Amino acid sequence: MIRGQQIVLESDSTIQMIMEKLQSYKSWVSLYFEGFQYQLGDFQLKMGKVVPTHSENLRGIVMEVEYLPISSLDKSRQIMEDFLDVWQETVSKRSLPGHFMHIEPNFADYGLSDHYTSQHTAVQYATVMAQLIATVRN
Amino acid sequence: MGVVLQHVEALEILLQGLCGVPKQRIRIHELCLKSGPNLGAVASEIRLLCDLEQPEPTWTVRHVGGPMRGAGAEQLAVLVRTMVESKVSKNVLRFFYALGYKLDHELLRVGFGFHFQRGIRITVTVTSVNKMLKLHATDEAVPVTPGIQLVEVSAPASSDTYPEIVAAVSSFCEYLAP
C-alpha cells in the first residue's frame, strides 16, 4: 500500500522479497499482529497483540470484527455499530486499562467499493499501524 | 539463441513432437522500469509483465538478478540468474510510478511456448520481440529483429539443485541444435 497516494496493490507474498532485492526502500517499522480467532454466531472476531517484530513490548491490542452474512459496508454498518456498543459496554465494566478506538478509513479514497474485500482489510491494518506508530511517538 | 523466421515452423513441429501437449500462445507486454535518480543507494530495475493472451489481462512483477559470476559460472553452458516473481493486481504500473520508478522501455513478445516435464520442468519459448512506436500501443508493434525470433530455454532451480538443472538444460538444448 502507498497511503500517501492511496494505492492498494494486491500481490503474492514474494513481493516482500522483490522489494528487498530492489533496495530502493528499507524497512523502517515492522509490527507483528498475533492472536486468536473466535466465532460468535454470525460474527467472527480476531483478537491479537501488536508487538514490534523480535520484541515483546506490547504496542497495542487489535480486534478485527467481521459480520459474515453481509459483504456490503453500508448494509452492515448498523449491526456492526450495535456490536461495538455492546463490546465497549462489556469492556468498560471490567475496568481494564486503555480503551478500544474504532478508526474507519475512507475506503472510497483508495478507489475501493462498498463490497468488502481483502484490500479493505489491508487499508484498515495500514490505518491501525499508522495510529499505533503515532501513539508511541506521542 | 535465435532462430530464423523460415525455420520457426520446423522448430514448432520438433517441439510439439518432443512435448506431446499443444503449444501455449504467448502475447506478453513487458514494461521495464528503472529507479529514478536519488531512489535507493543503488539503481534498480523491475519488469512488469501483462499477459494479453488471457481473457482478462493478468499482471506479474518480476525481478531478475545479475548472472552468476566467477570461475564456476564460466564453466557452465547456461546462464544462471536469480529471479523472483509475484502475481499482482492491475494497478501495478501506477504503484511503481508512485514509488519513483520510470518506464525505461517496453516490449511486446509474441509467439508460442512448450513446457516439458522430464524430471525437471523445462520451458521453451519462441517469440518475436517487438517494440512499440507509441507509448503502450501494443497493436502497433514492430519487430526489433525482423526475420529472427528468440528461442529461450529455461528451468527453475534452487541454490542446491542448479548444477543438475544446468546439465539437464544443456542436454535438452542438443535436441534443438540445427
Notes on the protein architecture:
The complex is a heterodimer of chains A (138) and B (178). By secondary structure, chain A is of the alpha+beta class. Helix content of chain A is 36%, strand content 20%. Chain A has a domain of 74 residues. In chain B, strands 1, 2, 3, 4, 5, 6, 7, 8 and 9 form a 9-stranded antiparallel beta sheet that branches. By secondary structure, chain B is an alpha+beta fold. Chains A and B meet through helix 1 of A and strand 4, strand 5 and helix 3 of B. Chain B: One of its GO terms (cellular component) is core mediator complex. Chain B: Belongs to the Mediator complex subunit 18 family. Chain B: This is Mediator of RNA polymerase II transcription subunit 18. Chain B: Component of the Mediator complex.
Strand content range of chain B = over 45%
Q: Stretches of chain A where pLDDT falls below 50 for ≥5 residues? A: none
Overall geometry of chain B comes to: globular
Radius of gyration of chain A: 17 Å
- What name goes with the CATH superfamily of chain B? Hypothetical Protein Pfu-838710-001
Architecture (CATH level 2) name of chain B:
Beta Barrel
Q: For the CA atoms, what is the radius of gyration of chain B?
A: 18 Å
Distance between the termini of chain A: 24 Å
String of helices and strands of chain A: HEEEHH
What does the largest sheet of chain A look like? 3 strands, antiparallel
Share in β-strands of chain A: 15-25%
Quick one: which chains have the greatest interface? A-B, 18 and 25 residues
- Biggest sheet: strand arrangement of chain A: 1-2-3
Task: Report the mean per-residue pLDDT of chain A as an integer.
Answer: 90
Structural class call of chain B reads: alpha+beta
Order of helices and strands of chain B: EHEEEHEHEEEEH
Total DSSP E strands of chain A = 3
Total count of domains of chain B: 1
Total number of strands of chain B = 9
**Count of helical regions of chain A:** 3
